[in-house]
Design a protein that fits this description.
With about 325 residues, the protein is an alpha/beta fold. It contains eleven helices and ten strands. α1 packs across α8, α4 crosses α5 and α10 runs parallel beside α11.
């Protein structure tokens, strides 16, 4: 079941759609063929089903701690039928030592588009068309979950402007809503092979903080699950809210690739750069072994050969000489 365009008319909206069609056809994509095994790129079966919003309990998020001094957090939501562990290896692949990674798990629920089959999903998906009804209740519940994860990080000492949220496919759609409706500007939001859901309600839910959050959006020109045009239209709508959107397209299907991940890492490095380490105190002997280790970790210095506190002191002293 392909995406259906609105009935032709002479309204400005039609002209926007026509312009988007030209963009989709003519935009030169970046060639890309690598698909990492860090996500589930199942093709959805377009079948009828019940509109069920029951959500079974979800497993705890997969958390990958920062390797050095923790100064930023990325919250990454998986797609339909996947899990947090499916994308967790990306933390090592992108290699940002100061970043803590959180990969939440969606609860299992019947999904209408898949004939009512129960699977991990952030909200029900009724159909993939521009006129299809959307699961507002499920989407807003997931939005609240993301906001609570952000609040937990803020309480732990990471400011909102050092937190990035995003995800793949349906996870990207949920993150988009959460970023646009948050009450504090976030460091950024990334949309991988995703789309803007609740597009008719977002204008009334949009916050000034949401407008101030920069977006990175990426989509495959050969995507047969979430059509490329959905990504283009979503980018145009988000931009129309006054949000800065950096859109990228690649020759791939409903997947990811090396170039996309390299571009995403560049985005992360821009919006959550590694914070400068705190100055080293003059009296090192007054510090605990834990504090000395933190100084070394913040500077990516190996201290596996340090067995006593004096060894740690000597290694730190080498940094200030």
């Amino acid at each position: 079941s392909a995406a259906r365009l609105p009935v032709p008319n002479t309204s400005p909206r039609l002209r926007l759609w026509a312009a988007l069609f030209i963009i989709v056809v003519l935009a030169p994509p970046v060639s890309c063929s690598y698909v990492p095994q860090t996500h589930d790129s199942r093709v959805l079966r377009l079948k009828g089903g019940r509109d069920v919003r029951h959500n079974m309990a979800a497993a705890s998020p997969v958390v990958v701690p920062a390797k050095s001094s923790h100064s930023a957090t990325v919250i990454w939501l998986h797609g339909l039928g996947d899990s947090g562990s499916g994308w967790a290896p990306i933390a090592q692949q992108l290699s940002l030592p100061h970043v803590k990674w959180i990969f939440p798990n969606a609860g299992s629920r019947p999904v209408t588009i898949n004939g009512g089959t129960a699977m991990p999903a952030w909200a029900d998906i009724i159909a993939l068309s521009l006129e299809a009804p959307e699961d507002e209740e499920g989407t807003l519940a997931t939005k609240n979950l993301i906001h609570s994860l952000i609040a937990d990080e803020v309480k732990a000492g990471v400011p909102a402007n050092r937190i990035v949220i995003g995800g793949f496919s349906q996870g990207a759609a949920m993150s988009c809503v959460a970023a646009l409706t948050h009450d504090q500007p976030l460091a950024g939001c990334f949309i991988l092979s995703g789309y803007l859901t609740l597009r008719n309600k977002i204008p009334n839910l949009l916050t000034d903080a949401g407008r101030a959050t920069p977006f990175f959006q990426a989509h495959g020109s050969q995507d047969m699950v979430v059509p490329f045009m959905f990504g283009q239209i979503s980018s145009q709508l988000i931009s129309s809210f006054g949000v800065k959107v950096d859109f990228h397209n690649y020759v791939m299907g409903h997947a990811s690739c090396e170039q996309e991940l390299a571009d995403l890492k560049t985005f992360f490095s821009k919006v959550i750069p590694a914070a400068a380490p705190a100055p080293i105190p003059s009296d090192l002997n007054a510090l605990s072994a834990k504090e000395l280790k933190e100084i070394l970790k913040a500077r990516s210095v190996d201290f596996s050969d340090c067995y006593e506190k004096c060894d740690l002191v000597n290694k730190v002293q080498q940094l200030v000489q």
